[in-house]
Amino acid sequence: MNPPPHREPFLTLPNLLTLSRLPLGALVWLRPLDPLFVLSVMAVAGLTDILDGWLERRRRIRRGDPAEDADSPETVGVWLDPLCDKLFVVSVLVAIAVARAVPLWLLLLLALREILQAVVAVASRAVPFLRRRLRFRFRANLMGKVSTTAQFLAIAAILGRHPWQVPLAIVTAVLGSASASIYVGRAIRAGGIRTPTTP
């Protein structure tokens, strides 16, 4: 007989660190034209991202939870972390775009990953066929972290009016597309067609 599912508390220290990225994203709007201020806020957000993952892993080890893999149950932090990451990035991008009149095409390149993932996620809920075939697992992946790093570098280039801002935005779009494809591929594998088992 399986034990009853463990109900995880929401307001854990890792989750609070994750949630702190929401006010940090709003904080950028106070001084979006100040490169040092924006980059400092981004650095703090990056630090919270590192700390919340480290603390969550230690908490799982102390509780004796199974190693985090594709089949392990999802915790609150598993979907909360990427959600807060995306909201923070979008807030920073829009604040800078509004303050510095960044071209729309450049903004779209930087936010391509978020746009693709949002479109697929909405489609997977709105289209019955996709709803039956896709099961999204909101776990971070290495390509997603690399894509976020590229985003931050591109934002820093825009703030500093560096000539590499366009090449970095293109690299961000390519990495973001790869990250989104991994996200979709994982959803297909997790919710794919199941063949009946023979007795």
Would you summarize the structure shown here?
With 199 residues, the chain is mostly helical.
Overview of this protein structure:
By secondary structure, the protein is mostly helical. The chain has one domain (13-191): Four Helix Bundle (Hemerythrin (Met), subunit A) (Up-down Bundle). Helices cover 71% and strands 0% of the residues. The protein is built from nine helices and no strands. It has helices at 13-19, 21-27, 35-63, 76-100, 104-110, 112-126, 128-133, 142-159, 165-191. The two termini are 21 Å apart. Mean pLDDT is 79; it is low at 1-5 and 193-199.
List keywords for this structure.
disordered N terminus; Four Helix Bundle (Hemerythrin (Met), subunit A); globular; disordered C terminus
Strand tally is 0
- Count structural domains: 1
Average pLDDT taken over every residue: 79
What fraction, in percent, of the residue positions are helical? Answer: over 70%
Topology:
Layout: H1 13-19, H2 21-27, H3 35-63, H4 76-100, H5 104-110, H6 112-126, H7 128-133, H8 142-159, H9 165-191
